[in-house]
Amino acid sequence: MNPRAHALRGQAPLPRARLSVAFGLAALAGVLATATARAQPAEEAGYRPPPVSDAMLAPPPAAPRQVGSWDEALALLRAHSPDYVTTYETVVRAQAQSRAALAAVLPTLNAQGSYVHQFFTETIPFGAASFLSPPPDVFAVGATLQWNILSPRALYAVGTARENVRAAALSFEDRRRTIALTVVDAMLATLAATRVAELNRVGLRSALERLVLTQTRLQYGQGTPLDVDRAQQDVAAARAQLIGGDESLLQSREALGAALGSTTAIAAPGDLRLDEFEAAVARTCRLNEDIERRPDVAAARLRAEIAERGVHDAELIFSPSLAVGSALSTATVTTLAPLTQWSVQAVLSVPLYDGGLRYAALKDSHAALEQARQALVASRVGAVVSAAQAQRSVVVYEASRQVAQEQRDLAARIDQRTREGYARGAGTSLDLVVSAQSLRQSEINLVLLEVQVGEARAGAVLANAECIY
Asked: Is 225 exposed, middle or buried (0-12, 13-18, 19+ CB in 10 A)?
């Protein structure tokens, strides 16, 4: 949107930034970079967690398929996405309808061939001769030419059909924008679910270590059965959280597969080359600062113009039309007629009365025009509001992520001190369990907010972008 338009609407102009930044690659890099650093539980000074093993600590199964790059994701979209293909075929249909509208004003030429055999004939004397009537066997060929040389409504419909093609193309462009945003969100959600699944296993390992610690203290008479029960309860909660996280991971992979038009679950690559991803996405979508050039707004404006043409089309129902035609035929036998015949005709049609159909069509077209104008207003308002909300969401999620980072660091420090103190006989098992649960939840919250920052940045750019792929 240009600065003047933003000033009129009280909005700040969109920053012209590279698309990769808008897509939150920095947040994505943060997720990947911290995965290794946080994969192992922190070891407190002077305290080494006891070794534990459990079948649920094994990593989740790999996805049946992995999309290796943004270009590969786009190739899957173009080939298999029902949403993409359906919208593209809408453009193809509009082009076909435009050709059909043009055909209505072009001449038509048809050829015919026939053979007629009569089973009953009559011999008719004619002076010294006689002939059979009708002829028993007749072969005939002919051709017919028709042309509506003056049909104002049909001629006007050709221009309307061409505008419909433009509107369909703009709608397809807007759909590409929303599909791209959906795929980006699905990829980020898959990475987030993968990270949460890793954190859930770290949380389960920590819970098992706490259980071993409480059992050891009970063995040496420094703990109580209540401590062990609380630790076992924490292990059960960690297991439940791990099971739910794995199911969310599977669902996110299935959602990414569905977004790409595949029945197979698909995962985003954990070793994504950010520089290649940046270049690929930059080739796909470009930032557009003019809200009027946003595809859905441009399509709504064009539909209003088409609706206005609909009013003129209804008015042209009252106009007369002129058609000319010619027929040429030849037969092997005729009765009292030449073997070859050629005729030309002209037909002038003037509509007089049709029961009120024309007036009803005119009234309907005026109502459709008003609806299209209001849809344009709604589209402009929605575009301005969504762009403003998308920009604001970036600030909100970045601030929330900063708070979540502080909460996670604080929870980790509290958990470290709680575990160290409990190992030395200070504190209670309740403190141990509460600090563990708080750390697990703060870890998950931080990862989710990191991904939400990426989604918000993607939405800030794709809210007003033109995508071509």
From this structure: exposed
